[in-house]
């Protein structure tokens, strides 16, 4: 009996320590470090100009502007985790080629932006990005977010619904809490998370165009989350990529699919 008691006590202590670690280390787990990347301005690039973007004097990412026409409006791009603003030039080019200025947001502690690498810091930077865009540039503002960035974009809309002309969310979660609960089923993650990042709730009062792109081979954020998200928003348009996973979705996006996305968003 004494051995059994010790075993149970050890198991309970190990469980509590693991739960505490999940609570204290969640920012590090959700936001792994990203290496500093080469400045996009150093890359050979035609059809657009690339400049650093500063918000209140702090580096905030890049401004990519078409050089052949006056921008029709602005797309704000929010990248995923283990990425930096420098990795999103191919996605930005899709919107630049459609005639839009593109702002690629960098989160503190990522890429070349100094600062504390936390979910709250990333969210604050994302909200600042929308506020700065609306204040500085005329025309419609669209949001495009991938994975973590889809969660950021969703939260940015909350309370600023009238400022956003359209939203495209790629491989999104419906809520961070629902994904975390699947990954760690033995822990009460909904209680442990600092913020459940409920994207469905964040967009509940948004009545503009909403496009959700899901990758059916996604194992990181399974496609059922995109399906569930789309099913809980009356105006959502769902595009599924049958042969794509969380990392290969961009390769599966044909010009025809992008054209459909832009039409659904009212940005074609």
In short:
By secondary structure, this protein is α/β, with parallel strands linked by helices.
Can you walk through the features of this model?
By secondary structure, the chain is α/β, with parallel strands linked by helices. An eight-stranded mixed β-sheet has the order 1-2-4-3-5-6-7-8, with helices on both faces. The chain is globular and about 80 Å long. The longest helix is centred in the N-terminal third of the chain and has 29 residues, at 2-30. Helix 3 (119-136) packs across helix 4. The chain contains ten helices and eight strands. It has two domains: 1-30; 47-264, 3-Layer(aba) Sandwich (Rossmann fold), CATH 3.40.50.1820.
CATH architecture verdict of the largest domain: 3-Layer(aba) Sandwich
Question: What is the domain tally?
Answer: 2
Quickly name the level 1 CATH class of the largest domain. Answer: Alpha Beta
Look at the helices and sheets and give the structural class.
Answer: alpha/beta
Mean pLDDT: 89
Going by CATH, the homologous superfamily of the largest domain would be Alpha/Beta hydrolase fold, catalytic domain
CATH topology of the largest domain: Rossmann fold
**Beta-strand segment tally:** 8
Give start-end ranges of low-pLDDT stretches.
none
Based on CA atoms alone, the radius of gyration comes out at 20 Å
Could you tell me how far the N terminus lies from the C terminus, measured between alpha carbons in angstroms? 72 Å
Largest sheet: 8 strands, mixed
Order of helices and strands: HEEEHEHEHEHHHEHEHH
In what order do the strands lie side by side in the largest sheet? Answer: 1-2-4-3-5-6-7-8
Helices, by number, come to 10
Provide the helix percentage. 25-40%
Name the beta content range: 15-25%
Backbone shape? globular
